[in-house]
């Protein structure tokens, strides 16, 4: 026959409902075990990362300690070098001053007992300098005493050669050093003036004035030499202070650079740690994510598959870009989505198993009524079964679900002669076909798994077996169609 599709909603029998509930509990238990396994793997990976971070930090602390020791060693070496340089310069200055004192002492009368005492004192100071001591004040005190003796010697030697005396004074002025003029310009000029004036008094007839001015020149030369020595020493101290300040500035700059580098390394370590966590957490669920997406497509839920794949891309993209915060946030969202998706897939699997079991029950019942099973297929979440009677009539049966998940049997019959089309187009009778399908449904009920409802179709007449379909019920291809059970 040719006619409109016939529909029957199917409820689940209590025995099958118990079986399905047991399957649901088993799947829930499997999900819990799987999630517990993932949690253990995440914890193991986190512990491994913590050990690696601790090892890196220990190595970093050791390296920082090594750098601090090296910096302290260099600083100590610089300080020791600076101290040694200062000490050597002071010792050289003391040696020059002692040489000058020894030269002054050489002009005193050797037979004078005071000269012998001063010479012994001078030898002691010389030994002190050689031992690395600093007898600065003692040298100046000795200089003063030697100058007095030298003046007395000069005063007693009135007949001494004025030319030799002048040569000695000029030699002393020149021996103060080439930088004496710049270090003590006023003292240098006074010495030159006194020597020039002293030169004019040299010669016979001016012995008294020469001797008087000689002491003044001696004092001026001694003062000039001391002033130059002090100022040279002061310049050296300033230079050393400048070098020390420069070293300190370099150390501060080095410390600042080290702090900046440490901050950069800490930030890089944080980024690396977050990326490592996101990578590990993705590795824990990645296989399950791929399987869930593939299963969703197999169970005819492409929207769920696309959501899973989009969530996976939301993780892999920031990981590839090195964006730690975005990657970690995305992997947390993926983990949460996976839990819900697996629960949803379990329900889809239960629905699929329900359809398959219903298909097997229907196939057994149809064969029991003399039908031959000619093939089956699955399409878009529906099962399509084909049967044929010995008369050649074909029954194309679709097992689908309504909006609430209730199974629905849809029969498309072709080749049955029992349809009488009355003048009223809304009324069509399929008595023999209906009786046959009712027997099939009764056989399904006997299997204690499913309970098909009343068979109905477009134009079914009123009566004890059914009622006319409403306008909405006559549109099974829309979301508003309802099934009469």
Q: What's the SSE blueprint?
A:
Layout: E1 6-12, H1 14-106, H2 113-130, H3 136-156, H4 162-175, H5 180-183, H6 185-201, H7 207-298, H8 302-321, H9 324-368, E2 372-379, E3 382-388, E4 394-401, E5 407-414, E6 419-421, E7 428-430, H10 431-446, E8 450-452, E9 456-457
Antiparallel strand pairs: 1-5, 1-8, 1-9, 2-3, 3-4, 4-5, 6-7
Write a short abstract of this structure.
This protein is of the alpha+beta class. It has helices at residues 14-106, 113-130, 136-156, 162-175, 180-183, 185-201, 207-298, 302-321, 324-368, 431-446; strands at residues 6-12, 372-379, 382-388, 394-401, 407-414, 419-421, 428-430, 450-452, 456-457.
Describe it.
By secondary structure, the protein is of the alpha+beta class. The protein contains ten helices and nine strands. The strands form two sheets. Strands 1, 2, 3, 4, 5, 8 and 9 form a seven-stranded antiparallel β-sheet that branches. Strand 2 (372-379) and strand 3 form a beta hairpin. The chain is rod-shaped. The protein starts with 5 loop residues before the first strand and ends in a 28-residue tail after the last strand.
List keywords for this structure.
single chain, 485 residues, alpha+beta, seven-stranded antiparallel beta sheet, two-stranded antiparallel ribbon, 10 helices, 9 strands, rod-shaped, disordered C terminus
Structural class: alpha+beta
Tally of helical runs: 10
Number of E-type strands: 9
Report the principal-axis shape. Answer: rod-shaped
Could you give the distance between the termini?
24 Å
Largest sheet: 7 strands, antiparallel
| Element order: H for helix, E for strand | EHHHHHHHHHEEEEEEHEE
Low-confidence stretches: 419-430, 464-485
Strand content: 5-15%
Task: Give the quaternary arrangement of the chains.
Answer: single chain
The helicity comes to over 70%
Average pLDDT, all residues: 81
Radius of gyration from the CA trace? 58 Å
């Amino acid at each position: 026959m040719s006619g409109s599709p016939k529909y029957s909603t199917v409820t689940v029998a209590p025995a099958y409902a118990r079986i399905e509930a047991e399957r649901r509990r088993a799947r829930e238990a499997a999900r819990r075990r799987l999630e517990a396994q993932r949690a253990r793997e995440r914890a193991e990976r986190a512990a491994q990362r913590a050990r690696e971070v601790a090892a890196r930090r220990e190595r970093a602390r050791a390296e920082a300690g090594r750098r601090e020791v090296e910096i302290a060693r260099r600083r100590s070496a610089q300080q020791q070098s600076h101290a040694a340089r200062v000490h050597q310069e002071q010792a050289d200055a003391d040696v020059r001053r002692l040489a000058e004192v020894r030269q002054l002492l050489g002009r005193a009368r050797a037979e004078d007992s005071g000269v012998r005492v001063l010479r012994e004192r001078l030898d002691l100071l010389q030994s002190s300098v050689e031992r690395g001591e600093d007898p600065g004040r003692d040298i100046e005190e000795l200089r003063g005493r030697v100058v007095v003796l030298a003046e007395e010697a000069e005063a007693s030697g009135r007949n001494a050669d004025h030319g030799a005396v002048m040569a000695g004074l000029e030699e002393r002025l020149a021996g103060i050093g080439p930088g004496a003029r710049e270090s003590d310009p006023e003292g240098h000029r006074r010495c030159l003036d006194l020597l020039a004036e002293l030169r004019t008094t040299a010669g016979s007839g001016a012995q008294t004035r020469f001797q008087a001015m000689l002491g003044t020149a001696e004092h001026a030369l001694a003062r000039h030499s001391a002033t130059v020595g002090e100022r040279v020493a002061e310049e050296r101290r300033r230079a050393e202070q400048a070098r020390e300040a420069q070293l300190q500035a370099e150390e501060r700059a080095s410390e600042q650079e080290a702090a900046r580098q440490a901050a950069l390394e800490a930030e890089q370590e944080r980024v690396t740690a977050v990326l490592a966590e996101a990578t590990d957490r993705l590795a824990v669920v990645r296989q399950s994510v791929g399987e869930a997406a593939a299963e969703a497509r197999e169970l005819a839920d492409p929207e769920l598959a696309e959501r899973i794949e989009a969530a996976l891309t939301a993780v892999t993209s920031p990981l590839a870009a090195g964006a730690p915060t975005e990657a970690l946030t995305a992997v947390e969202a993926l983990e949460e989505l996976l839990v819900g998706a697996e629960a949803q897939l379990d329900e889809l699997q239960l629905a699929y198993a329900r359809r398959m079991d219903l298909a097997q029950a229907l196939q057994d019942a149809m064969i029991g009524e003399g039908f031959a099973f000619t093939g089956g297929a699955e399409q878009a979440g529906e099962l399509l079964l084909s049967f044929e009677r010995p008369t050649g009539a074909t029954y194309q049966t679709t097992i689908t679900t309504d909006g609430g998940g209730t199974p629905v049997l849809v029969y498309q019959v072709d080749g049955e002669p029992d349809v009488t089309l009355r003048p009223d187009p809304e009324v069509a009778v399929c008595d023999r076909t209906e009786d046959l399908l009712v027997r099939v449904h009764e056989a399904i009920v006997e299997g204690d798994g499913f309970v098909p409802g009343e068979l109905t179709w477009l134009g079914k007449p009123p009566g004890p077996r059914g009622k006319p379909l409403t306008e909405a019920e006559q549109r099974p291809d829309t979301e508003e169609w309802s099934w009469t059970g």
